Amino acid sequence: MVILGIETTCDETGAALVERAGGEERGRILSNVVLSQINEHAAFGGVVPEIAARAHVEALDHIIAKAMGEAGYSFSALDGIAAAAGPGLIGGLIVGLTMAKAVALVHNKPLIAVNHLEAHALTARLTDATPFPYCLFLASGGHTQILGVRGVGDYLRLGTTVDDAIGEAFDKTAKLLGLGYPGGPLVEKEAARGDPKRFLLPRPMAGRHDADFSLSGLKTALRLEAEKVAPLSDQDVADLCASFQQAVVDMAMDRLRKGLKLFRTHVGKPTALVCAGGVAANQAIRKVLHRIAFEVGTSLVAPAPALCTDNGAIIAWAGAERLALGLTDGLDAAPRARWPVEMTKPAGRVAARSHIPPS
Ligand code: KG4
Ligand code: ZN
Fold first, then answer.
1. Residue 318 CA: which ligand is closest?
2. Which of 6, 119, 200, 284 matches a 20 to 30 Å C-alpha distance to 311?
3. Domain 2-127+307-343 has CATH 3.90.1150.10
4. Which homologous superfamily is 132-301 in?
């Protein structure tokens, strides 16, 4: 089957065609066109929802035409139309989902309203045919979660952030230090020439029995340290970045160890530790993920950075996985700014717990 996937949840406009052969658990990307709006938001130090929605409206039909052209397909040859229906910024979601509905209606194709987090969760199957069950570490600008991926639509939330997402904390750190947007790569670059031990920053949540994250205390501690040494020299900035990144790395290590322990208890032995989201591009974080996977006797599946971040191919693949199970949506499917991935369970499946109850 060949699916068109549309992504408009945040600041990337994406469209892609992905093929899934019968019975296969690996896909083939026929085209994957992504237009980043970074330049339009950079002056504001973060994504402005209204600007994002307008930019999606202006770009989406060209991006879809390009994806169709590069793959050499016409709409009539497609098997389904998938769009990210949430979670995300509501303006962008409306643009992408409405476009998908229009194409599905005109060409009489099934519509699949995809949960964006589910798309990240299933990417390891598109790229590496990873069998269920596996443990996913999803860290982006909007999300920080550890999930047990037991099957399509069957996710166990093992840990989540109680405040900011990791990528958001990198972005805020960069903004505070005047580095620009998006902050992650800039902070990582500065950290490379800094001293990670110079500033003593907290390791939030360390030692707790759950696998949750918290970033806001770290952000405040960083601001207080920066204020103490202001005005900041280039070396101060590098040392602050290195100290911040080290605190995040230490927290990720502690939280993932707990997450994998919970996975063992509630799911079993993972076939892999999988990472997704823009933060997974960070080399220091990747190193820790390799180490933790090794510790628990599994391997790290890290899809190429272009597939870890937002794009249409991951939406198309999730659409294909759902369509293969006969899971489609009506033209009344609603965009959802909030949509926990645990709530994508298809009706009729045996209900299993979707999150670890607080102890
Ligand atoms: O997945 P993504 O492209 O978009 C969403 O947020 O959905 O992730 C972008 C986030 C940004 O917050 C960015 O600062 C962060 O990922 N990021 C990084 C790195 N590259 C991107 N964070 C840390 N280190 C990096 N190298
Ligand atoms: Zn994403």
1. 2
2. 284
3. no
4. ATPase, nucleotide binding domain (3.30.420.40)
Q: At residue 24, does pLDDT exceed 80?
A: no
| C-alpha to C-alpha distance for 317 and 82, rounded to whole angstroms | 9
Residues 186/174, Cβ–Cβ less than 8 Å: yes
Give the residues surrounding ligand 1 with Cβ less than 6 Å away: 10, 140-142, 167-168, 170-171, 182-185, 188, 277-279, 281-282, 309-310
Mean pLDDT along residues 310-317 = 97
Tokens standing for residue 181: 């947007």
- Both tokens of 37, joined, read 């709006």
Q: How do the domains of the chain map onto residue ranges? A: 2-127+307-343, 132-301
The structure's pTM equals: 0.93
Ligand with smallest separation from the Cα of 10:
1
- List pLDDT tens digits, range 35-92: 988 888 877 877 888 888 999 999 999 999 999 999 999 999 999 999 999 999 999 9
Rounded to 5°, angle at Cα 261 from 260 and 264: 85
Angle between helices 166-176 and 234-266 (to 10 degrees): 170
Q: In a 3-state reduction of DSSP, which class is residue 124?
A: helix
